[in-house]
Amino acid sequence: MWGNGAERTELLKKAGYNVEDVQAKVNSLLGYNTNENERSIDELAQDVIDGKLGNGEQRKQALGDKYDAVQAKVNELLTKREDVPASEPENKSDGVLNYKGSSLSQEVLDKIIALCKHYDILPSYAITVLHFEGLWGTSNVGIIDNNWAGMTMPDGKETVVRDSGVTVTKGSARRQIEGGYYMHYETVDDFLKDWFHLMRNGYMYCVSGVKSFSECVKGMFKVGGSYYDYAATGYENYLIGMTSRLAEIEKVNGSLSKYDDMIYKKEEVKHDKIEIVFENIEVNINGVPYILKKK
């Protein structure tokens, strides 16, 4: 009845409910606890594969004494997945951008740049968030459903025609504790068309027209004018993860600002001064320190 994700938020708000209060009650009824120490190894392993627990020290901190067991499970799941031909990402090779086992082909990158130009979205932000959320298509749902952002199918629907004109079908199941199913996109092109349409000016998020990486991230949350928070981790934690990911990608591929320069004049873009103090844990952005906080 109430759907999932953005749809649920919209429906609850229209009905006059407080979204946070409702979700808290749902979590309570389901016995859901966000404490990573109280969740199963299988659930945590899936979170790692989906990119939800970061990398390196961030992941170790999140998992605590379960780190070794979870990492072993991740390796087991990924080994099994490698034996399935359908699990090969479309752009595994011939990547113009590469980072930790994922590649972005020139063809897909060109489409992202074109969509950034059409929707007035900063390319360095779009490239980074699509890796942060979907590891450029190598997350589990990215491989199975061409869904690079965990977009959720409305409850009870087998097929939906989105506002973007893209038709999606019911995809793979979400974690049992979350319920529901992911959207299945026929192609990566369909996903990109739909995701960028979601980020359009005047809709849910405030990223269109923003010429600063950090301000784009801020525009995904209520603090930046969004209708709701994009991630449960909160704005500052998400900002730390995103700026760390940007820095990591740029270490391997060079500055992503060259893609910003393809659609904007250099003087239009405000380049953040980012200093990584501890990767995925503490960063300084334009002189302001941000430290990862446990939720």
Write the layout of secondary structure elements.
Layout (H helix, E strand, L loop, with lengths): L4 H10 L4 H12 L10 H9 L6 H8 L3 H16 L12 E5 L2 E4 H14 L3 H12 L5 H6 L13 E3 L5 E7 L7 E4 L3 H11 L14 H6 L16 H19 L3 H4 L13 E5 L3 E4 L2 E4 L4
Antiparallel strand pairs: 1-2, 3-4, 4-5, 6-7, 7-8
Summarize this structure as a short list of keywords or feature phrases.
alpha+beta, Lysozyme, 8 strands
The CATH class of the domain at 88-291 is identified as Mainly Alpha
Let me know the number of strands: 8
Overall spatial form: globular
Oligomerization status of the protein chains:
single chain
What is the average per-residue confidence, as pLDDT, rounded to a whole number? 82
Distance between the termini: 29 Å
Q: Identify the CATH architecture of the domain at 88-291.
A: Orthogonal Bundle
C-alpha-based Rg, rounded: 19 Å
Along the chain, the helix and strand elements come as HHHHHEEHHHEEEHHHHEEE
Structural class: alpha+beta
- Beta-strand residue fraction: 5-15%
Query: Helical percent range?
Result: 40-55%
Low-pLDDT regions? 30-34, 81-94
- Summed up, the helix count is 12
CATH topology of the domain at 88-291: Lysozyme
